[in-house]
């Protein structure tokens, strides 16, 4: 009897030990799969483990972190992290990641849900700070909350939190105060706090990096380069310092120097999508598409293939696909913006257009009363317009293959880029001259140009505020406004404006041939049709595709309608330019 009981106990203990060993092996295997970027397989292993150990906090924490950081699915991440925090509330990072998961859902929900998520995010970040009150990252997360959530406290609460941070880390507190003053536009106070921070730790590269970042946002690229060089001297193998130096060189159109710094940065951190993207961009700006394509593809295979740099890389690959040895782009590489991006962009343009209509009703802007320009042979004009558009595409390809003016560095880059765009879009103006058609046929006029520009600037700010507000990024508005006059951005105003001129040029000629509503609806429907292949590839439901088709038709049709009513391309050109800065189209 005793022997039998002993044997049973031994078997039970061995069974428990074997089960624990198997569980440990499963978690180890899931971690290995994640390290190999086999994320969907890692999810399956975690879920198999949790099916047998439902309340195991560690596995839920790891799965939630995987959904958040790798798969970019904050909703699923939050569901697992909530249970992980409940199972083991002493894991401080769990509360911190949960706050990020709540914030990540902010752009994809309605107003009521936004309020609920804001409260949950605040509770989670407070729990993280309570769990580890001396964590600089958790304090910074709470500061970010105060700045991004309307009514959360703004800069006053953010500075109070920076003061609390300074109580146990004076250096970090000074840097945060300095950065906040910089965002508030208080340059003298910002520089004072930066200098005090650097003086307190002169051999720490972080202070120089933060000061360099401040100068970079202000458009003082030479000052930024100096500070980033100081950081690199203090930490020659720092990937972040080398990356910042490369970005500053790129902004200053010193693309050769940017390549050298970014090449050192990627050697120091070969898994960074941000560094790979910026190095690829520098190669592209230097007119070296083969290296650019290779690095853009590398972005898609690195540690964060779902992040913003990967999305930008897909767009750049689309641009360069026909250049580097006619390299094809995989179907999955051509990806439209996510709803959290496209929705705010759409509403920003709709608010700008609605603003123009309101100003027209208030008689602040006037609707043209003179007859719409006409022509004798509309179909011939439409055919010639098609020839002009083909000419634009041909000259664009000539530029991509370096048959136009060569790329340059420094101020010559801006000159060559401007002249190349004049050449590329010249067929429209050549045709206008040959056909003796006035600029009114492309909705251009010198009349009240200052007033039109002012209206465009006002509506552009409205659009930017709507876009950034819906994305919870209103703190970036001063940077967007400063970006309007940055040399790198200002050089791009001409091609952005000329894009609008070409679209109006085509609209007018289609209207001559087919009438007003076909001229509005044809480009709008073509825009909507262009989204269908991506939706089919994503296996969207019929209901979703129909809803997006209606929306994607309505948006460009509304913009074209308002522009047609105004018969002015100036205001919408300025809105387009500022919105491109807000969405970081030039980076």
Task: Provide mean pLDDT, rounded.
Answer: 82
* Rg calc: 28 Å
Morphology: globular
Low-confidence spans: pLDDT under 50, at least 5 residues? 11-19, 322-337
Q: Give helix % range.
A: over 70%
Number of helices: 29
Give the percentage of residues in beta strands.
under 5%
Structural class: mainly alpha
Task: Describe the main β-sheet briefly.
Answer: none
Total number of beta strands:
0
Give a nutshell description of this structure.
The chain contains 29 helices and no strands. The protein has helices spanning 2-35, 39-52, 57-69, 74-87, 92-104, 111-131, 136-148, 154-166, 170-183, 187-200, 205-217, 221-234, 239-251, 255-268, 273-285, 289-301, 308-320, 339-361, 378-400, 411-424, 426-434, 449-470, 477-483, 487-490, 493-514, 516-529, 532-537, 542-566, 570-582.
Structure description:
The chain has 587 residues and is mostly helical. It has a domain of 187 residues. The chain contains 29 helices and no strands. α3 runs antiparallel to α4, α3 packs parallel to α5 and α7 runs antiparallel to α8. It is globular.
Question: Keywords for this structure?
Answer:
single chain, 587 residues, mainly alpha, 29 helices
Please write out the topology.
Elements lengths: L1 H34 L3 H14 L4 H13 L4 H14 L4 H13 L6 H21 L4 H13 L5 H13 L3 H14 L3 H14 L4 H13 L3 H14 L4 H13 L3 H14 L4 H13 L3 H13 L6 H13 L18 H23 L16 H23 L10 H14 L1 H9 L14 H22 L6 H7 L3 H4 L2 H22 L1 H14 L2 H6 L4 H25 L3 H13 L5
């Amino acid at each position: 009897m005793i022997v039998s009981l002993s044997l049973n106990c031994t078997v039970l203990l061995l069974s428990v030990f074997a089960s624990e060993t198997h569980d440990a092996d499963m978690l180890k295997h899931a971690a290995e799969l994640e390290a190999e970027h086999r994320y969907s397989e890692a999810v399956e292993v975690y879920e198999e483990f949790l099916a047998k150990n439902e309340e195991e906090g560690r596995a839920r924490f790891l799965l939630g972190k995987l959904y958040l950081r790798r798969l970019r699915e904050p909703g699923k991440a939050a569901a697992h992290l909530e249970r992980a925090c409940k199972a083991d509330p002493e894991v401080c990072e769990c509360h911190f990641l949960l706050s990020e998961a709540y914030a990540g859902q902010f752009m994809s929900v309605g107003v009521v849900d936004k309020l609920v998520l804001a409260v949950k995010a605040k509770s989670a970040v407070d729990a993280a700070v309570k769990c580890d009150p001396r964590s600089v990252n958790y304090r910074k997360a709470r500061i970010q909350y105060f700045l991004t959530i309307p009514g959360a406290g703004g800069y006053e609460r953010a500075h109070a939190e920076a003061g609390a941070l300074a109580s146990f880390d004076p250096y970090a507190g000074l840097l945060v105060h300095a950065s906040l003053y910089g965002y508030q536009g208080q340059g003298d106070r910002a520089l004072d706090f930066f200098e005090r921070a650097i003086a307190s730790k002169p051999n720490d590269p972080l202070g120089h990096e933060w000061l360099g970042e401040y100068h970079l946002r202000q458009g003082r690229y030479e000052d930024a380069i100096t500070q980033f060089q100081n950081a690199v001297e203090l930490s020659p193998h720092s990937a972040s310092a080398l990356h910042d130096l490369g970005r500053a060189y790129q902004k200053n159109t010193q693309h050769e120097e940017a390549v050298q710094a970014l090449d050192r940065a990627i050697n120091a951190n070969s898994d960074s999508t941000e560094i790979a993207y910026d190095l690829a961009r520098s190669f592209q700006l230097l007119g070296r598409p083969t290296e650019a394509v290779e690095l853009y593809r590398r972005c898609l295979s690195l540690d964060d293939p779902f992040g913003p740099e990967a999305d930008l890389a897909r767009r750049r690959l689309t641009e360069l696909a026909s250049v580097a040895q006619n390299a094809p782009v995989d179907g999955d590489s051509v990806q439209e913006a996510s709803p959290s991006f496209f929705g705010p962009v759409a509403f920003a343009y709709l608010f700008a257009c609605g603003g123009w209509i309101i100003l027209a009703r208030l008689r602040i802007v006037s609707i043209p009363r003179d007859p719409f320009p006409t022509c004798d042979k509309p179909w011939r004009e439409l055919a010639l317009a098609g020839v002009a558009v083909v000419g634009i595409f041909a000259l664009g390809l000539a530029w991509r293959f370096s048959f136009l003016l060569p790329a340059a560095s420094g101020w010559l880059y801006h000159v060559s880029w401007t002249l190349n765009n004049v050449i590329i879009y010249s067929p429209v103006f050549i045709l206008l001259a040959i056909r003796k058609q006035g600029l009114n046929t492309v909705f251009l006029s010198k009349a009240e140009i200052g007033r039109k520009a002012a209206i465009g600037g006002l509506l552009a700010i409205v659009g930017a505020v709507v876009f950034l507000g819906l994305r919870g990024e209103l703190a970036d508005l001063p940077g967007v406004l400063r970006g309007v006059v940055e040399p790198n951005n200002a050089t791009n105003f001409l091609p952005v404006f000329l894009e609008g001129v070409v679209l109006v040029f085509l609209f007018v000629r289609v209207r001559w041939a087919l009438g007003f509503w076909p001229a509005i609806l044809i480009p709008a429907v073509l825009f909507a049709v262009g989204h269908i292949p991506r939706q089919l590839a994503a296996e969207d439901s019929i209901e979703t595709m129909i809803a997006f088709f209606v929306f994607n038709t309505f948006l460009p049709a509304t913009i074209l309608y308002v522009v047609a009513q105004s018969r002015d391309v100036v205001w919408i050109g300025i809105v387009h330019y500022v919105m491109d800065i807000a969405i970081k189209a030039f980076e």
